[in-house]
Specification:
five-stranded mixed sheet, 13 helices
């Protein structure tokens, strides 16, 4: 992937590119897992080296986003950058403004960092599980009045877990799904789950959930249309239902905001939210509740990290 990016960039620039700044989350996995962070960064470093880069630097993604926001400031501020990406949420509390702009050593301006592997994908998966899996048998029962096993409805949509995907789409699980259909009070629902297995529809269901999440950022209701081989399912989702569905990942994200402020002991002058899911009014409200009366600002939701990394590259490789 890095080699492809490098090749395309060199073709565009008409020159060899051997220097790079790579954005990274605060924590690749759970909180305070420095060994895992070092291992993940080493993997990225080796990949960049194999792709042909010679000078390689790393920067936290929320810090990079903060550098892009800093370019718009006319006064010094303490800013909490909240970067809600696809796979992680990261927060950095940063002193920024004209006094700091252009400095290659920002260590004194970086007041706190928090991060966890919970992001937009987790919101989509939670939505898919809570709102889309009922027609496939979630919460249904067997003829002996036992609930269908929850993992059979979680694993197909847990697209960020290799283990869950391997388990659901295994040959052994096909036998279990076939048996569950035979024992089901509502076999037509398990027949749909078998179609998910045979047609590998897990990702498509999560994509439908993502579309609903995006739509419900502006609408009060949205209808998901799922086209199966022999039927079309139409599932109505309200904004309130989405709020309930994403409660768990939402709270994890909001806790990172609280943790960053507690870590530094300083309340920010402003909150800069970036990343695709930062557009969600539900998440913005959750952040606002943690830091009331603190203005929330936004820039380019999808481009601020990349633009900030380019600014940092200018300083690193003068």
């Amino acid at each position: 992937m890095m080699a492809n990016i490098k090749t395309n960039a060199e073709a565009s620039a008409q020159q060899a590119i051997t220097q790079t700044v790579i954005g990274r989350p605060v924590n690749f996995h759970g909180r305070d897992s420095e060994a895992a962070n070092r291992q993940a960064q080493d993997i990225l470093y080796r990949a960049a080296t194999r792709a042909g880069f010679k000078d390689i630097e790393f920067q936290f993604e929320p810090v990079a986003a903060g550098l892009e926001y800093e370019a718009t400031l006319t006064d010094n501020k303490t800013v909490l950058v909240v970067d809600i990406g696809g796979g992680t949420t990261d927060c950095s509390l940063i002193e920024m403004g004209p006094s700091w702009r252009g400095k290659s050593d920002r260590s004194d301006s970086l007041l706190a960092h928090t991060g966890q592997r919970v992001g937009g994908n987790d919101l989509d998966i939670a939505m898919a599980f809570k709102q889309l899996m009922t027609p496939f048998g979630l919460n249904s029962k067997s003829t002996s009045n036992l609930m269908m096993p929850i993992t059979q409805f979680w694993n197909p949509i847990a697209i960020n877990s290799v283990d869950a995907q391997a388990d659901f789409y295994s040959r052994a699980n096909l036998k279990q799904l076939t048996q569950l259909k035979k024992e089901a009070q509502e076999p037509e629902k398990l027949a749909r789950l078998l179609e998910v297995y045979h047609e590998t529809l897990g990702y498509r269901l999560v994509r439908h959930a993502e579309e609903a999440k995006i739509a419900l950022s502006e609408l009060q209701a949205y209808q998901v249309e799922i086209n199966l081989l022999r039927e079309t399912l139409n599932i109505d989702i309200s904004a309130d239902e989405m709020t309930l569905a994403i409660e768990n990942p939402k709270e994890k994200m909001a806790a990172l905001v609280e943790e960053a402020v507690k870590q530094s002991g300083i309340k920010p002058d402003a909150i800069f939210m970036t990343g695709g899911s930062a557009r969600s009014p539900i998440l913005r409200k959750a952040v606002e509740e943690k830091l009331p009366n603190t203005p929330i600002v936004s820039g380019n939701y999808f481009g601020s990290v990349t633009a900030g990394l380019a600014r940092w590259a200018e300083l690193c490789f003068k």
